[in-house]
Amino acid sequence: MVFVGVRSVPGRMAATAGTAVLATALTACSGSDGPAKVAPSGGTGGAAGTPAAAPTVHPFTGGKSGLRNPVLAVKIENTRPAMPQSGVKAADIVYVEQVEGGETRLMAVYSSQLPKKVGPVRSARISDLHLLPQFGHPAFAFSGVQSKMKKYIRRAPVDDISQDNGGSAYFRGANARPPYNLYADPRNLLKQAPKAEGPRDIGFRFGPAPEGGKPVTTASAKWPAANMGFTWSAKEKRWLASWGGTPDMAAEGGRLGGQTVVLQYARTTRSKFHDFLGSYTPLIHTTGTGRATVLRDGKSYDARWSRPSEDKGTSFTTADGKPMTFATGQVWIVLLNDGKPYIP
């Protein structure tokens, strides 16, 4: 089943999610598995277009570094044999997506900084191709894709630097057995992605916390075969992640987790793709509108999300319609099914 809960600080009632609203798909993804065709659009600098003035803060983190750096998205395994993962701690944005069998996989997005290595790198999914157009023309690193999906990868507005194309940027580690031992050097990957654009506005807004919110200490998210938790650390001023009830550690040391965690409810359906065991791949509909729970600064906020089309970003608003601001730093977008639990 799929479940999200938040636990309040002592003396407070548990925060509850708002009324579910099914998203109304506004793009081609509502009628087919393939992403909508997106016209090329310029970013805020990068090899693919005319250089533009750099933003004053990074649109992914609200920070000051890497304002013109190209955007790199990497698919990363998120099951027990892959842990501890490398490079996730340095990501600007971490997406958590349901895949076959009720498990989850990460898509880590980098721009403001790059880790020395990232992985274990795993294969792409159709939901990735519906998320990536909002970044303009990013570099996309993954270890492979189902044969029926190859034509969609070719049509997508990305620099394909998969294992098939990345050459020496990929290497095998000695800490696990295949397929959980494939890693990549992000700097080497970007050398092979000359068309990758710099960061652009994807709808995030950073600033002081909005009024209201409910003080909470923990939040949890569950899928049919996986669960994650986030615990507020006042000392570190971020939400510390757990996986399967145990701390989600980084290979570089310390816990994974972000300054802002968004539990985003999006309609999830069966796609036409499936794995070699016959399990169907979920298709997460990330255009339209829906509800969300935003965690920042030890509080939980009921919010709404809106994304009008695949080449546009996702904006978040509070219950009273004001911009939902994020805390400066890493953002986790945890994608959960809206409505009844999605079991493929």
UniProtKB/TrEMBL annotation:
Species of the source: Actinomadura macrotermitis
SUPFAM superfamilies per record: YerB-like
Region (Disordered): 33-52
Protein's recorded name: Putative lipoprotein YerB
UniProt xrefs under Pfam families: DUF3048, DUF3048_C
Keyword annotations from UniProtKB, A to Z: Lipoprotein
InterPro entries xrefs: DUF3048_C, DUF3048_N, YerB-like_sf
Span of domain DUF3048: 68-196, 225-333
